[in-house]
């Protein structure tokens, strides 16, 4: 059948939207070569600078290592360090070959101190080898829609294999962090590890003890800081990915190539700028619109009370209406709502049949879709029906 489309805007437009190329004054001078500010709830990029350029990401890689370990490890799983793990370059915990550790403990070494050897012990413990673990990392990245990301190492040391170079984009890195803090079944545990200030543990034997402290300066830098991970290699430069929650809004910042020595502080300046911009400019607005939807025609359908009219009219409704539907918006951004509903159906039509969609979009990006369904059924006027009606008429005489 024909499709009828109605478009209307939920908000009057004033000013300019985030997506139209106008860079806000305060964000025009970022140090990072690639940067993203993301709404962690929807995954929408609120601001991007070269956000799809592929670059190495150093130890920010470890957020993926951590979440995969949390999702795949056995409770109290113990694993022995291999010689390969023990040979990793600094920064390291200092594991020795054959020494046994609890993976749970190593997650703190991984996330707080960014130890490269611990990352390899974890990877081998979970997947049997670094290569197999990198396979899991790439599988998860693909699952999350991160098509410009490729993992070779669990620690983020510069690496490459026949599949490519260890790298990601600011957008993908932010999307992985969104998964870690919002969508993973182990998100609480991830936050618990990355928020910890200090942590001490021993090897399984109990003859060596270790202590770790958190190097994520952002945690004490801003109110509502949730999580984060720093990184640095000669190729990658300084990198950072972090999250902040304030007044029910959660923002993620991802930075790649944000300065080289001796400019360690650049990443904190950029992070603060981006987070403050998000906090100052974005508020949740309810965008749900109640709509009067026209009845749909059911050709040769039987309509109660109008059996002999040509076609039946069937009322339709939105199946999964969400009157609380809110979107994080800045002033001047408007949500467009399009309604596509078939004009005609051929009877018989069952109740609850999908006949269209209502789509909420922002700058051409789909925010959410709702199904339009029939609110009642209609049978078909076929030969049998005609005979039945005739018989009734004859009997009534």
Q: If you average the pLDDT, what whole number results?
A: 91
Net shape: elongated
Summing up helix and strand content along with how strands pair, one would put the structural category as alpha+beta
Calculate the terminal CA-CA distance, rounded to whole Å.
41 Å
Care to count the β-strands?
Answer: 21
Neighbour order of strands in the largest sheet: 1-18-20-21-16
> Strand-residue fraction?
25-35%
* Residue runs with pLDDT of under 50 for 5 or more positions: 11-20
Major sheet = 5 strands, antiparallel
Q: Tell me roughly what share of residues is in helical segments.
A: 25-40%
The tally of helices reads 10
* Rg, Cα atoms, Å: 28 Å
How do the strands and helices of this protein lay out in sequence?
Layout: E1 3-9, E2 34-39, E3 45-49, H1 62-72, E4 78-80, H2 83-86, E5 100-102, H3 103-112, H4 116-127, H5 130-143, E6 160-161, E7 164-165, H6 170-183, H7 187-195, E8 198-202, E9 209-213, H8 218-221, E10 225-233, E11 237-246, E12 249-256, H9 266-281, E13 282-286, E14 296-299, E15 312-314, E16 316-318, E17 326-330, E18 336-342, E19 344-346, E20 354-362, E21 365-374, H10 383-396
Parallel strand pairs: 14-19
Antiparallel strand pairs: 1-18, 2-3, 2-12, 4-5, 6-7, 8-9, 10-11, 11-12, 13-17, 14-15, 16-21, 18-20, 20-21
Helix pairs in contact: 1-3, 1-4, 3-4, 4-5, 6-7
């Amino acid at each position: 059948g024909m499709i009828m489309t109605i478009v209307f805007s939920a908000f009057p437009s004033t000013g300019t939207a985030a997506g139209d190329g106008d860079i806000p004054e305060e964000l025009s001078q970022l140090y990072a070569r690639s940067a993203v500010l993301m709404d962690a709830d929807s995954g929408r990029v609120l601001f991007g600078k070269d956000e799809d350029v592929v670059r190495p990401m150093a130890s920010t890689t470890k957020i993926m290592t951590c979440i995969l370990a949390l999702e795949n490890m056995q409770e109290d799983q113990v694993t022995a360090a291999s010689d390969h793990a023990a040979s990793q370059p600094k920064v390291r915990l200092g594991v020795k070959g054959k020494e046994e550790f609890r993976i749970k403990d190593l997650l703190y070494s991984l996330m707080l101190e960014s130890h490269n050897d611990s990352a390899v012990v974890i990877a081998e413990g979970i997947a049997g080898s670094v290569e197999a673990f990198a396979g899991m990392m790439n599988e998860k990245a693909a699952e999350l829609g991160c098509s410009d990301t490729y993992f070779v190492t669990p620690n983020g040391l510069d690496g490459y294999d026949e599949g490519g170079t260890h790298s990601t984009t600011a957008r993908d890195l932010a999307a992985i962090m969104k998964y870690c803090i919002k969508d993973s079944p182990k998100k609480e545990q991830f936050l618990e590890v990355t928020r910890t200030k200090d942590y001490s543990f021993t090897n399984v034997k109990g003859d060596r003890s270790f202590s770790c402290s958190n190097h994520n300066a952002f945690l004490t830098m801003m109110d509502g800081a949730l999580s984060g991970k720093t990184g640095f290699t000669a190729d990658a430069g300084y990198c950072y990915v972090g999250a902040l929650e304030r007044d029910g809004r959660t923002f993620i910042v991802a930075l790649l190539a944000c300065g080289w020595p001796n400019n360690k502080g650049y990443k904190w300046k950029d992070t603060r700028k981006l987070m403050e911009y998000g906090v100052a400019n974005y508020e949740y607005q309810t965008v749900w619109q109640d709509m009067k939807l026209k009845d749909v025609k059911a050709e040769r359908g039987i309509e109660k009370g109008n059996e002999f009219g040509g076609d039946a009219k069937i009322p339709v409704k939105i199946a999964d209406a969400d009157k609380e539907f809110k979107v994080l918006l800045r002033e001047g951004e408007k949500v467009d709502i399009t309604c596509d509903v078939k004009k005609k159906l051929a009877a018989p039509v069952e109740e609850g049949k999908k006949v269209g969609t209502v789509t909420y979009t922002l700058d051409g990006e789909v925010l959410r879709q709702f199904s339009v369904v029939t609110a009642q059924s209609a049978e078909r006027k076929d030969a049998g029906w005609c005979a039945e009606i005739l018989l009734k008429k004859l009997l009534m005489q």
